[in-house]
Amino acid sequence: MHRRPLLAAALAATAAPLAARAQEGFPNRAVTLVVSFPPGGQGDVVARPVAAGLERLWKQPVPVVNRPGASGEIGNASVARAAPDGYTLLMALSSLAVIPEAARLLGRPPAYEIDQLAPIALFTADPTYLAVPAEAPWRSLEEFIADAKRRPGAIPYSSSGNYGALHLPMAMLTTAAGLDLLHVPFQGGGPALTALLSGQVQALASGPGPITPHLKSGAVRVLASWGARRAPGFEQVPTLIERGFPEAEYYIWAGVFAPAGTPAPLREALRQAMAGVAADPELRRALEAGGNALDHRDGAAFERFFRDDTARLVKAVRRIGRIE
């Protein structure tokens, strides 16, 4: 009866130095960074400069692998099930916690649960913006809402898929404002943006990175943001909160996760590597060139951010309800 605890303690004492030694040569081969969406979206825009920074630091390849499908569920689940050895990581978006809750709303088992993934480091956390084509008739949020109410179901908008990082903010707005818009889902933010630029749709909720080049070229304009306050560089853009929609707050963040079974020493090695990349001026320049601001958090700070954001978004999903 007393031998089992003693045996467990002995095994733990043996495993700790083994795990520590396993990290000494890490990485000694390529580390895959999975993005659960096609190229061109927010996750991809952040993942590529982060991967480049890790390659400079580790002197090993860090390929970005796009695994789109099911609003990000396929790619997220692939990393949740991956070997916890540090060689498969996920650049996740804010939809990470939404997707399992949405699966339950739809009456099916989730492909993964968030406790199967361990937060390592946050890199960006930007408000989402309501973008429309430059030739669209709306010059303000109020004009957009008024037209949508006059023509229920007539204004199409694109997204990265049901309950995805670009769909949930629009669902928050339509629920709060009582609007009926035509939802046109795609497999990711890149195709959703292409649909806006090509005239297939007339609105898109997007992080600042993908739309910034098109704002500069004059191809799109933004009518409002889902932030708590106006952001630098977007001072002229009102927030939905200040326009009377206090529950329409949403941030499209991007952060690195590892499989939850990754040993603590290896997670710490990953955290330190991400901190090194965050301190690299090249990363800041690359993010800013793409319209994103570096917002590096790790350890307890990222865990607290993720926990709080998860609680807020799960509440929003339940309020919106089932969407087929």
From TrEMBL:
Residues 1-22 form the signal peptide. It comes from the Bacteria. The keyword DNA-binding does not apply. InterPro entries: BUG, Bug_dom1. Keywords: Signal. The keyword Signal applies. PANTHER family: BLR1237 PROTEIN (PTHR42928:SF5), TRICARBOXYLATE-BINDING PROTEIN (PTHR42928). Belongs to the UPF0065 (bug) family. This is Tripartite tricarboxylate transporter substrate binding protein. The lineage of its organism: Bacteria, Pseudomonadati, Pseudomonadota, Alphaproteobacteria, Acetobacterales.
